[in-house]
């Protein structure tokens, strides 16, 4: 099947057709397009390598891609379409709220879903055997980020936030981690305050750190510029736990102002042989350094290809295979288990770093904290 037909998902599924995987990614605004592009690059590289290795019992693996544009309803409609097309599994998505909607629909339709990048703890309303996830739960990463803030001497933290289940969950995690250790979180409404008003509030609250729980480029970029230029706030740390500075667009838009903004990244300190090889291939495909999201995409296909080879493209068998997975991924051995408070099968081994862009060389990342 040619690339165009693959993207449209044309043609009925039968015993001689490719084994299809439905892929979700934010490829247009208001979705985080850079993240979607990196996620798709990883997914596509994984499919290419799986097919080079013989596919699924001689049948090619085929990716049926749908753009979610960060819209939960578009994701639900795409999952409905995937079910009608006969896909063996659903994969991908970056935005947590979108992934949650997709997971609920996939579960209701009996479709196995391997979530690549979304971190919201409550990815499903309750326990399910059909959904598994590669990205670490938000509570794990954001607690580590809170520990980093405390270790750097920050006790009074301001958060510029927008309405979202994901951002609200992040604020709650930060409060729960910081409060017992003498920390406090002050919320600033990024939708109701101008960047100048955010600066005034920071000065009035005597906060030593401002975390950007907001979208990119707006309002994150104007807020960063305003804080950097305010003489009262020269010692205020700007942070972005959700990973906004990971992508090249951040450095392009902000230049030196975008350096020294710590964020969470899910990579090891050193890649092993597989990770290094995939990094080179992803760099060639993207024309830039791959983000952790691209590695998540590749690992998603590595897992699904192994499951499909072992159990065949049967949805029930795939959904029952998560506890038996043992796959070498780009960032370590991948297996799934049940974690307290998490309703899906979860990889408990993703590496987590707090990193920033080096002010002396914004194209280089500094590892500040690991866990």
Tell me what the structure shows.
With 371 residues, this protein is of the alpha/beta class. The protein is 40% helix and 20% strand. The protein has a seven-stranded mixed β-sheet, with helices on both faces. The chain has a four-stranded parallel β-sheet with strand order 7-6-8-9, sandwiched between helices. The chain is globular, with a radius of gyration of 21 Å. The protein starts with a helix and ends with a strand.
Q: What is the averaged pLDDT score? A: 94
The total count of strands amounts to 16
List the strand order in the largest sheet: 2-1-3-4-5-14-13
* Helix vs. strand class: alpha/beta
Unreliable stretches (pLDDT < 50, length at least 5) are 1-13
Rg value: 21 Å
Distance between the termini: 43 Å
Helix content: 25-40%
| Percent range for β-strand residues | 15-25%
**Largest sheet, if any?**
7 strands, mixed
Q: What is the 3D form?
A: globular
Number of helices: 12
Write down the secondary-structure element order. Answer: HEHEHEHEEHEHEHEHEHEHHHEEEEEE
Which structural traits does this protein have?
disordered N terminus; 371 residues; single chain; 20% strand; 16 strands; alpha/beta; 40% helix
Write the layout of secondary structure elements.
Blueprint: H1 3-8, E1 19-25, H2 33-52, E2 61-67, H3 72-85, E3 89-92, H4 96-109, E4 113-115, E5 131-133, H5 138-151, E6 156-161, H6 165-178, E7 184-189, H7 195-205, E8 209-213, H8 220-228, E9 237-239, H9 248-254, E10 263-265, H10 273-286, H11 292-311, H12 315-319, E11 327-329, E12 332-334, E13 336-337, E14 345-347, E15 353-358, E16 361-370
Parallel strand pairs: 1-2, 1-3, 3-4, 4-5, 5-14, 6-7, 6-8, 8-9
Antiparallel strand pairs: 10-15, 11-12, 13-14, 15-16
Helix pairs in contact: 2-10, 2-11, 3-4, 5-6, 7-8
């Amino acid at each position: 099947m040619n690339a165009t037909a693959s993207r449209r998902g044309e043609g009925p599924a039968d015993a001689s057709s490719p084994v299809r995987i439905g892929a979700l990614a934010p490829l247009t605004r208001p979705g985080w397009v850079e993240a979607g592009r990196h996620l798709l690059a990883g997914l596509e590289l994984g499919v290419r390598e799986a097919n080079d290795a013989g596919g699924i019992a001689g049948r090619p693996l085929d990716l049926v891609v749908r753009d979610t544009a960060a819209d939960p309803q578009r994701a639900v409609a795409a999952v409905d379409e995937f079910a009608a097309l006969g896909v063996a599994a659903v994969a991908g998505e970056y935005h947590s709220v979108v992934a949650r909607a997709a997971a609920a629909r996939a579960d209701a339709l009996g479709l196995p879903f391997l979530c690549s990048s979304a971190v919201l703890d409550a990815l499903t309303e309750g326990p399910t055997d059909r959904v598994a996830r590669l990205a670490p739960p938000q509570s794990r990463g954001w607690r580590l980020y809170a520990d980093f803030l405390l270790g750097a001497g920050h006790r009074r933290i301001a958060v510029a936030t927008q309405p979202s289940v994901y951002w609200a969950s992040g604020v709650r995690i930060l409060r729960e981690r910081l409060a017992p250790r003498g920390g406090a979180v002050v919320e600033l409404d990024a939708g109701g305050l101008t960047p100048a008003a955010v600066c005034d509030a920071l000065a009035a609250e005597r906060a030593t750190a401002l975390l950007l729980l907001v979208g990119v480029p707006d309002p994150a970029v104007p807020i960063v510029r305003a804080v950097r230029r305010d003489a009262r706030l020269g010692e205020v740390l700007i942070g972005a736990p959700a990973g906004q500075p990971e992508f090249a667009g951040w450095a392009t838009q902000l230049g030196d102002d975008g350096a020294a903004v710590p964020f969470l990244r899910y990579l090891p300190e050193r890649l092993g042989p597989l990770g290094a090889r995939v990094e080179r291939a992803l760099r060639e495909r993207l024309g830039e350094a791959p983000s952790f999201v691209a590695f998540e995409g590749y690992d998603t296909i590595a897992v699904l290809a192994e499951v499909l080879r072992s159990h065949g493209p049967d949805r029930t068998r795939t959904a029952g295979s998560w506890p038996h997975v043992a796959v070498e991924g780009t960032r370590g051995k991948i297996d799934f288990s049940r974690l307290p408070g998490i309703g899906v099968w979860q990889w408990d081994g993703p590496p987590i770093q707090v990193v920033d862009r080096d002010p002396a060389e914004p194209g280089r990342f500094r590892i500040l904290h690991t866990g």
